[in-house]
Amino acid sequence: MNYRFSILMPVHNHQNYVGQAIDSVLAQTFKDYELFAIDDGSSDLSAAVLASYGTRIKFLQQSNQGPEVARNKAAAQARGEYLVFFDSDDYLFPFALETLDKVISSFGTPTLLMGSMERFQEGEEKAPEAPTDRTIRVVKYPDYLSKTEAVGTMGIVVRKSEFDAVGGLRNSTPETWYCDDNTLLLKVGTRGQSILIESPSISAYRQHGENSTKNTEAVANALIRLADSEREGVFGGKERRADRYAYIGGRAAAWAFYYCWRAGHRKLAIKLLSGTAPMVSMAVIRKFLRKFRPTAQTIVLEGN
Q1: Same domain, 31 and 170
Q2: Which of 37, 46, 57, 172 could form an S-S bond across to 42 if both were Cys, CB 3.0 to 4.6 Å?
């Protein structure tokens, strides 16, 4: 049996969150999906929580190898046309998959979709409140690296055939998996149509003390490794190099300023900017030139 969506959810020591995450998937109005929950060597009761769902989810286990290895493992078994990247501490609004399906049907077979997210705080017992305006507003780009506006990396949905064609995610480790989303976007960034869903938000990001963004040094070092990979030709040759430089440089500059420098990690900020200097320069140039380019037009689709 094939599906429209395969949802890939790694789980590591999230016993307090993962139940709500799974319940939000099971409550979807669109039912043509499969949910892979991969226990990544949890030392708490996460595996027991997953097992309690029985056949409603596809429960996989591995030793602690990190989320990229976990998602690759699930993707190898997935039978969905599209892979949905979902974290075990986040939440899908009930209309999320229905919205994604409508967008895909409106634009044929896009390579990549990016869904916007709400935010909610740890300790909020109630589910996040879903947006009341369900009008679907999107921006279409020829590919991800041709975008003209700043776009985050949340809510990634990628066509499985393209994910397979680029070799999937890295086989990283629990220490080196950071910037997994950036790496994937660079891999598929020139491979076809990319759709940004501006509204409604389709999911909610839980803010808590163990968010990966709290590990400022790990992310900074991952961005430097990303730049090194680009120099080594991992993401391609001369064609579209300027686009890749601008993307990496923009991420590095933002992280150096907002998360390193402003938090007092001055040496780390300098290290990051030094390690990505040519790319940061390209990002600055592109940001200036963007003022003279037409703004991408929002397309309004039928609401849910």
Answers
A1: yes
A2: 46
Q: CA 11, CA 87: separation in Å to the nearest integer? A: 8
Q: What is the mean pLDDT of the chain?
A: 94
- Residue at 302 is within a domain: no
147-168: buried (b, 16+ CB within 10 Å) or exposed (e) per residue? Answer: beeebeebbbbbbbebbeebeb
Query: What average pLDDT score do residues 173-196 get?
Result: 96
Tally the domains of the chain.
2
Above 60 in pLDDT, residue 153? no
58-to-33, 67, 77, 125 alpha-carbon distances in Å: 11, 16, 10, 26
Which residues, in sequence order, are CB contacts of 259 under 8 Å at separation 6+? 213, 216, 219, 220, 265
pLDDT in tens, 158-170: 999 999 999 999 9
Which among 159, 186, 213 is the end of a domain? 213
Residue with tokens 């916007």: 116
Contact 53, 59 (CB under 8 A): yes
Q: Are residues 180 and 285 in the same domain?
A: no
